[in-house]
Amino acid sequence: VHLQACGGGLVQAGGFLRLSCAASGSIFSINGMGWYRQAPGKQRELVARITSGGSTNYADSVKGRFTISRDNAKNPVYLQMNSLKPEDTAVYYCNAIETVGTSTVHYWGQGTQVTVSS
């Protein structure tokens, strides 16, 4: 599975950005996709996730501001980010999860920088 993410950039606080992630390869085995982010000096954290069945979950810090969606059953996946705050500044990574038997495999995109200025 190959993930190609795009859409990052520089925006002022209160602004918006939309990230997109396209998966290619053996996408039939993907159970869910999502976005993680990693700010300097911090651990990578889940931002939002959507399952193949359409269920979503969000980090508390982005609820009500970010929306994860997709065009069809699995691909591509979008992250609409509204009311951005400086603390949203991070490298955002697209993620796909594949369950093989009892094992879970994570695939990662290359990361896209989001910078929110105050």
Question: Describe it for me?
Answer:
This protein has 118 residues and is mainly beta. Helix content is 0%, strand content 58%. The protein has no helices and 11 strands. The chain has strands at 2-6, 9-12, 17-24, 30-38, 45-51, 56-58, 66-70, 77-81, 90-100, 103-108, 112-117. The strands form 2 sheets. Strands 2, 4, 5, 6, 9, 10 and 11 form a 7-stranded mixed β-sheet that branches. Strands 1-3-8-7 form a 4-stranded antiparallel β-sheet, with no helix packed on it.
Helices and strands in order, then pairings?
Elements: E1 2-6, E2 9-12, E3 17-24, E4 30-38, E5 45-51, E6 56-58, E7 66-70, E8 77-81, E9 90-100, E10 103-108, E11 112-117
Parallel strand pairs: 2-11
Antiparallel strand pairs: 1-3, 3-8, 4-5, 4-9, 5-6, 7-8, 9-10, 9-11
Derived structural class: mainly beta
Instruction: Give me the strand/helix succession.
Output: EEEEEEEEEEE
The major pleated sheet works out as: 7 strands, mixed
Number of helices: 0
> Helical amount among residues, as a percent range?
under 10%
In whole angstroms, how far apart are the ends? Answer: 37 Å
Shape type: globular
Rg, Cα atoms, Å: 14 Å
Assess the beta-strand content as a share of residues: over 45%
Strand element count: 11
Rounded mean pLDDT score:
93
Low-confidence stretches: none
